[in-house]
Design a protein that fits this description.
About 25% of the residues lie in helices and about 30% in strands. By secondary structure, the protein is of the alpha+beta class. It has a domain at about 35-55 and about 75-200: Sandwich (Immunoglobulin-like). This is Secreted protein.
Length: about 280
């Protein structure tokens, strides 16, 4: 009995180990074998099918169905087209050149999730030529969209001429580069340009500086004005009478105050008379 249990445990352990080794082997992909290099074989396949700088307009497309071939109008299929390619002024020495690709959507519907690839070519194109692929999330019907792509810095050093490092000679641009969309004209998805013929546009960054206007006053026009202070010295003979009560002037004087003032005046006159008599 114990021997049977031990046999089952060993078989289960061996099975788990084998499955683990198999799962580890499935995690290996091409990037582990060739490195993290971006390949442009899909662009080479498109060039083999349609060439470059070509166009093919077809009025309709025949589609096989259980009821026979059905013609699909061109307006129902739609088409993406490369309108213009411009190179932005190279400002960062740590990055490769940046290109602005203008894409036109000639359809009545929006297109989502297609890819745009740019390849730098020196001599003949090869799968390892410096390239970059970006994904466009959405372009509306009838819209012209500008997509920015930046090539690897290796595009600036692809050859050697008499000891001088030279960059790419031609640029290949492919929209819908993985051929995922059905279009009325697949040939206009590929364009090739000489590097010297691509117009270079400068990216200007405008900085707005707001200055506050401060009004200044000339020091010569400022006069120091001393406040005029009137000092009133009360008369020794006249008593001070409160003329303001509760913020209003009294129209009639107080009788008691008048009597006190008269008595003080009489006392003052008597004192003056005595002083004058003693002086004689």
């Amino acid at each position: 009995m114990n021997r049977q249990i031990l046999t089952k445990v060993l078989m289960t352990t061996s099975f788990v180990v084998c499955m683990t080794m198999q799962s580890d082997a499935q995690q290996i992909n091409a990037s582990h074998l060739f490195g993290n290099h971006s390949y442009c074989s899909h662009v080479i396949d498109l060039i083999s099918q349609h060439g470059v700088n070509n166009t093919f307009n077809r009025g309709s497309t025949f589609h096989a169905s259980p009821f026979g071939h059905v013609a699909i109008p061109d307006c129902e299929i739609g088409d993406l087209q490369i309108v213009e390619v411009r190179q932005q002024e190279h400002v960062d020495s740590a990055c490769g050149p940046t290109f602005a690709i203008v894409i036109q959507n000639h359809s009545t519907r929006s297109v989502c999730g297609f890819h745009v690839t740019a390849v730098a070519v020196f001599g003949h194109i090869c799968p390892t030529s410096p390239n970059v692929t970006v994904k466009v999330d959405k372009i509306e019907a009838g819209e012209a969209l500008e997509v920015l792509v930046t090539l690897p810095i290796e595009a600036l050093a692809m050859g050697n001429r008499n000891g001088q490092v030279i960059g790419f000679q031609r640029l290949v641009v492919a929209i819908d580069s993985f051929d995922e969309l059905m279009e009325s004209d697949e040939a206009n998805n590929l364009k090739a340009f000489n590097a010297a013929s691509i117009p270079v546009v400068s990216v200007s960054v405008s900085t707005t500086v707001e200055t506050e206007s401060v009004s200044t006053i000339d020091s010569g026009s400022v006069q120091n004005v001393q406040p005029s202070v009137e000092t009133q010295v009360p008369s020794p003979d006249a008593p001070q009478v409160d003329s303001v009560q509760n913020g209003t002037f009294d129209s009639e004087p107080d009788v008691d105050s008048l009597r006190s003032a008269i008595k003080m005046l009489d006392t003052t006159n008597a004192t003056n008379d005595v002083a004058a008599a003693s002086g004689i």
